[in-house]
Amino acid sequence: MMKRKTSQFLIPVEKKEQIDSSYSIYPSFSIESGAINEGYTTLAMELAKSDTLVLDGYVGVDWNEVITSLNAAFQKMGLSTSIQNIDGFLKSEGELKSMVDPFLGGDDPIFGFRTNLELSDYFDKTRMSNVLDDKVDIKIVYGTGASEMDLDGKLVYFDLPKNELQYRMRANAITNLGFGSPKDHKQMYKHFYFVDWPILNKEKKKLLPNISIIVDQQRPGHPVWMSGKKLRDGLKRMSQSHFRVRPWFEPGVWGGQWMKDRFKELNPDVPNYAWSFEMIVPENGLLFESDGALLEVSFDMLMFQESENVLGKAAHRFGDEFPIRFDFLDTFQGGNLSVQCHPKPEYIKKEFGENFTQDETYYILDAGEDAEVYLGFQEGIDPNGFKRALEHSYTSKEELDVEKYVQKLPAHKHDLFLIPHGTIHCSGINNMVLEISATPYIFTFKMYDWQRMDLEGNPRPMNIDKAFENLNFDRQGPKVSDTLVAKPKTEVSGDDWEKIHLPTHKDHFYDIYRYEFDSKVAIGTNGQCHVLMLVEGESIELEVEGCEAQTFHFAETFAVPASAENYSLVNKGKTKAKVIVSFVKDEAC
């Protein structure tokens, strides 16, 4: 059976040396030599030192592979085992369906409501009992939720990156937690996002301090693992120096060729790349590297353990939710995005259970000569007439004259367009957009999509009614270019550097600056986590006191935690370096 369905390469066990100094799709954080181990045989040898094992982990883990491989290794060592699958104590699918359905939004293909269920709700505790045989060498309880057995044993946690979870989902190789068969993929992802992930993230946070061994299970038949102590020590060091998450990439109906042409480690045999998830807490992972070996854990583990070190002042408001998102939207030789808007703060809280809304900006990393952005309404817009036109276009499949209703502004390299909630917008073709945003990322209300089908040939869902509950029709006419296009201003400068403010909208809780320098610039975090990207130049070196200097290349996203306090950026290229820095506004904490 095919275990993953994707055009993206499976991450190698050993990190290959980069031939040229360019964007890396496998960024890693170095830890001590010998920390990362490979294979089920070495894992079994370590686990054999204990007589009781609790093998827990995330949804999507291949538990059949895990227990079959480990048990075979134990038998080869001459060790007897008694094994209990925690799934045997799950409530019936009928009970689970009744429990989770209120959070799944019915037939809506995208939206549900973030659950308040606990993992313990999934199990029938009246049936749960320890039936393991005490007369064997090793007793094992395994499966997602194995810790619910409350067995006193070595805790081994099997993690799975969200991109690989979704590739397994698309291959119908996994199911939602507690369910025996896969759903339609859109419904399954919605179930993951609103139910499985919140429940299991809460459980992962609870288990993290007690994990004895962490296992990265994404490579079929070939796990990598290290001690829980080394994991926690690595996260601590990361929270005081820097981190760059592992980006991942997706094609789309409007996708372009910019990333495909420039990011050399990507699979070139793909029609396009529409997105890169550069830094999105719910989706990305963090790579640790030891002697070239790579082990990935979810980004949120860093936040669960080190939110105060990472976020500083902003931890009071955001807790362990990382507030700022960086991602790429590539329309070079591609198509327009859908015409869309995002929900008001009170709407996203009431309807979906999110704590803050999807306020965005478009930073233009690169642009063709004809590049444009759709933003705001034409002067004198008639909301009712616009809605009737959208509904007619949707039912009749006739194309809509979008520019009759929506303004189109020219886009140039280094422009910043402001897209607070309720603003109608989309990128036009031949833009390479760095989307700097609040972290929520699926709450896009599409109104018009140029009569396109999705990559499977199905109509893309529209959300016209939801959009009209959130659209701000005051953003029209000259007010759009006056208030929704940032006006850069140099705040301070030196002999060969400038600090330029790109003011965001009052509704944005984050701010954006650009540093331009020939040699070196020193920056203070002022108690905030800084998210950065080199948006012009070849490479820069990050210097944080007490840490080894790190090199970052053009278009790579990285972060400096609040606890670092001060850092310097050194231009390693031959031309002026330009670096974007975003952080939470003090007044928004």
Automatic annotation (TrEMBL):
One of its GO terms (molecular function) is metal ion binding. Keywords: Isomerase, Metal-binding, Zinc. SUPFAM superfamilies: RmlC-like cupins (SSF51182). Signal peptide: none annotated. CDD domains: cupin_PMI_type_I_N_bac. This is Mannose-6-phosphate isomerase class I.
